[in-house]
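Attaching the record inline, Q. Sequence:
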Amino acid sequence: MSHVVQVQTQIRDPVAIRAACERLKLPEPVFGEAKLFSSSAVGWAVRLPEWRYPVVCNVNTATLAYDNYGGRWGDPKQLDRFQQIYAVEKSRIEACLKGHTVTEQSLADGSIKLTIHVGGAS
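Structure, as predicted:
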């Protein structure tokens, strides 16, 4: 029996943040205070390609702090991609912790289909 699930992502797991950065070939996230244009934020700083300032993930509140000046200092598609891959990696981590296996399929519209095989069966 299959089930289709739609995921609304809250970025709360440093391990999944690190996995998403690794998969996207981004620099390793760094925890601490990060400078934005006119402020700073504390959390896991993620450096997206061609973004002037990092995206700071506060895993306690699931909030993201960033300043891309309406897209002038960083393409919002890069942030969307990071959030998508974070969701995939977090789902994979949780499924594996329960002993399940995961297969992944990239779809033509840019979305990603994950199939979780309960009990590790294919």
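Helices lie at 14-23, 76-97. Residues 14-89 form one domain.

More tomorrow.
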